[in-house]
Each structure stands twice: as structure tokens, then as C-alpha cells.
Amino acid sequence: MAGRRNSHERIVAAAKAEFKRSGFKEASMRNIALLAGVSASALYKHFPSKEDMFASLVEPVKAEFEREYHERERREYEGMENGDRMFSEQTGGCRWAMEFIYDHVEEFGLLVNCADGTLYGNFIHDVAEIEENATRRFIEELRKRGEEAILLPQGELHLLVTTQVEAIFEALKHGFSKEDALHYADTLDCFFTPGWMSVMLGVSEQN
Asked: Does residue 206 belong to any structural domain of this protein?
């Protein structure tokens, strides 16, 4: 049992290295087996396909990221019920996302840089879609509560959200250290939060 566990750990480490080096499309199961020091047949006992192998590396972190995102969204609505200030969870959202990304930097590196040809090839677009839907729900909730929130045209909302999400992941694409990435995330929050308040509520953050 211990031997199988050790083999599995070697295979996982080898898979990460091969996918990072070659990307999913060009990654070779043969190379992974060689790096792990196992036979090709032994490799397939652990993972039935290259797709399953890649998914095993990234899906748990992706799912956790989405759970944490929706938990933040839930707390925002809870805060609105309690009379907290507007944008209590949204403020610092780039910082939160960047911290999560860099706490799981290997997995996000695979998702962002190496996933072409997999179900995760549109990962950044998928994150932007989640954010776009959440932003639309937030605006609608504000309007239900009597706020004069502006529901942006769908195309504009999509472009603004996509711009912010892509900006966050640029730190990873450019190889920022965690320290530099978090500083950049704080800059993004300073840049985007007043802008969202202006276009959604017609006010500046200072008001």
C-alpha cells in the first residue's frame, strides 16, 4: 500500500512537471511515466487518461476557489441585511483572489498557462462569467432594496468584468512573485473599486 502511495506521489509530481514544461496538448504520458520511474501500464492504473490526470491536478483547487467566491458573495448579502457599508466584500476582492491564487500557484499556473485542449482551456473566461453573473445579481439586489443602482448594458458589464478578471491573472502570466502580486492586487482594488461604485451607483468612494 505504501509503495502504491509513493508511486502515486511520484506520478503526480512528474505530471505537474511535464504539463508545466509542455502544456497539456504536447505533454506525453510516456514522459510522465519515465519521470515518475514507473511503467506506462502502471501509470494507467493510477489515471485512465491524460485528461483525467490533468483534471486531478486542478479540479480540487478550482472547486475550492469557486466555493470561497460564493461564500464571499453570501457574506456580502448577509452584511447588507445587517446594514454594513456598501461593497464590504467587494472591497479587497482582487487582494483576496490573488492571495488564493498564489497559495495554490502550481495549480493556477496549470489552469492559466497549460490547459489549452482540456475542459479548463477557457478558465479565465469561466471565472469572468461567474463574476459577471454575481455582479448582475448584486446590482439587482441593490435595486430591490431601494438603491438607485445602475444595471449596465450586458455588453459593457461583460467587458468591464472581463478586464478586471484578466488583469488579476496577468500577474501569474508575467511570473510575479507573491509579494509583487499582492502589491499589484492592492493597486487593482484601488483602481477598480471606485470605478465600480461610480458606474453602478453614480457616486465616488469618497461620497
From this structure: no
Q: Are residues 17 and 113 in the same domain?
A: no
Structural domain boundaries, residue 158: 50-201
Per-residue pLDDT tens over the stretch 48-88:
999 999 999 999 999 999 999 999 988 888 766 665 555 54
Buried b (16+ CB within 10 A) or exposed e, 47-74: beebeebbbebbeebbeebeeebeebbe
**E strand or H helix at 145, and its extent?**
none
Closest CA to 94 of 194, 19, 8, 14: 194
> Do 67 and 23 belong to one domain?
no
pTM equals 0.88
Q: Which residue has the cell 506520478?
A: 11
